[in-house]
Design goal:
Shape: globular
Distance between the termini: 61 Å
Bound molecules: iron/sulfur cluster
Oligomer: single chain
Strand content: 5-15%
Number of helices: 29
Number of strands: 29
Radius of gyration: 26 Å
Amino acid sequence: MGNTKHEGPMKLEKTPDPKHWVSPVPFGLGKIKPKHIRDTMKVMWENKDNLPYATRILTKGVCDGCALGVSGLQDQTLKGPHLCTTRLNVLRLNTMPAIKEEVLHQDIDELRKMDSSDLRKLGRIPYPLSRKPGERQFKRISWDEALDKMADKVKNIDPKQLAMFLTARGITNESYYVAGKVARFLGTNNIDNASRICHSPSKTALSRSLGIGASSCNYQDWIGSDVLVFWGSVAANNQPVSTKYMYAAKRKGTKIIVINPYYEPSMDEYWIPSIPDSALFGTKIADDVYQVNIGGDIAFMNGIMKHWFEMEEVQPGSAIDHDFINEHTNGFTELKEHVENQKWSDLEQSSGLSKERIEELAMLLAKSKSGVFVWSMGLTQHRFGTDNISQVANLAMLKGFIGRENCGVMPIRGHSGVQGSGEMGADPFVLPGGGFTSENIERVENVWGFDIPKWQGDIVGESIEHAMLPDDHERKMKMFYTSGGNFLETMPDPAFIEQCLEEVELRVHQDIILNTSTLVDAKEEVLVLPAMTRYEQPGGGTSTSTERMVYFSPEIKGPRIEEARAEWDIYMDLAKRVKPDEKHLIEYESAQQIRDEIAVGNPKYDGIQHLKDQGDVFQWGGAWLCEDGVCPTPDGRGNLLPIEIPEHRKTEGRFYVTTRRGKQFNSMIYNEKDPFNNASRYDVLINEDDAKKLEIQEGEAIVVYNQYGKLNGYAKFANTRSENVLVYWPEGNVLIPKGVYEKYAGIPEYNTAVIVERAETFHAQKDMKYVEKRVEELEMETT
Ligand code: SF4
């Protein structure tokens, strides 16, 4: 925690500088790039029935898209407008009317013919619904009926058989806080949130390395830093306005380095609509791109450190910050010894980069006096995600890039609610204000006035799998209460997830729209509850950005879905029905009362109680966490950790596969074409030389498969690292094994090895595939 305060938005240098232009040809004519004006017109057309309300949401609300953070059209980084097509695309979720009755109550199989994009476009969920197995349609029920059914189920199962989940789509801190509290009030710690499948390793790693669970710095620290590294992050696509901050950084001489298996077009060149010279001539963003193997980042970072130690042998002080290391870290000797023992050949093989290339980045970082590391799913979604992030922390600490201006480590978040969800305690490992430790449990019990269950709750993936346990197992998940989320389209092995969802006795989907998971049968009943958006909630709500800014989003006047309720109010109502005698412990009269309690429950959030009007914002923790190198660890020092190179799980001739996002917001698809490379959702990005060795032509039908599944796609030649292919997410989830979780943070592994073949070859030889699987089936027949 630091004393320095963020100074608010700064002015952007706007005099054109041709040095950064992509080309003097205006508007990138002839290039593949997003069409911002066309997309904006399309959104206006979609919202034409509710334009004044849509405008009020944009000008007064806090964006419910990504977690870059903006209130109205102003952010805390740069003066000037802040708006992007991601926000415009999700706008319709807030302005559309209810689903038509005849559509909502049609045969379930008719609804099942639609994909989630079609279901989303039907409109808002209008009232509570129920559907039991064998029933062909959703039936309208009252709120009382729905909540009584839920309360009965909670009373009749072991609390360990209840699991709750909250997505990050527009949910406010107030709802996360009440959900976390209600879960414990009902006796369960099985509560989890969407960060489990995106940034949970960031929090776990930063906590063990630096004692923090969030970005240590601000976006303003990018601007004027010597070097800004994007590691496994396509911020230009997922947090589009970040390109404006990148532009500002470049104008101040910052070098931008991108590390990714694919030479990401959007991080190479971008046309920033709100900056005239960039909108016209584009901005060259990346100064250099390192195309690392999927899963090769740990080796790459060990290589960087190894070269630093070699430089130090020749000239002490030429690469690392000895003062910072001596005064503020533990574990230097062990880390140095570990890294020095690594062989260059192993580092090159694992990273896919030559020693010379690794040394190049090592030298650039060595010369830099300041630096910021930004990362995303390219580092977190691995079975060694926590180790990946601790490596980033190692680099930052060795350079002293922590706790001061233009320096820091930043897990950039893609969802507006995801930073606050854990901080509010909607997480099995976290309670408000800290971890699930006896000390914090006792503190929170004093705030809440009731006992918190002491057993360790499950992560959401395990909870879902626990639906398959025998009926009498104490952890068999019998009731699943999920706010948003579409597990069929976010978790590995969708077919298995569907079986699990069907096994749950009572499934409750609290949401604003239907998705494919909502339509899956449950063993006894599916309930669907209509939730309010963040803009409809009485008393407004708050949401926390990547840079720890807590923004207030007011209630905005406009049309309402008559029966939709604030999510915190629904949780509270359920709790009161389960334990009417103790309802005084869980009752809130207003959102303000919740904020008052958050300020006490999570002392870092002291200040949230004062947020009342549009534009109100505060940053918890000050401008820099670990300011002046002092970390909130027990001894005040950061921990340098030796990290092993992960085992390679790819045999000769196979490819690593990872997933990529196109024109989408999380699993919501907004366009079948990726605006940055013109790829379709089933295109497989493959290196041209690799494809030629397999006699695969551009555009040819191919099959990507392994023992877990098969994806029928089309070859799209792309500048990817050789032997690395990319498929779109979530379509590619069929290739990912189920049940492989990172051991510290529980994120599912989203990368694996695959075989790529021409479809013709695959089908001609398909009787020879899956030898292992056939034997397994034979064994089952004989027993
Ligand atoms: S960049 Fe993110 S926070 Fe900013 S407008 Fe777009 S979606 Fe919203």
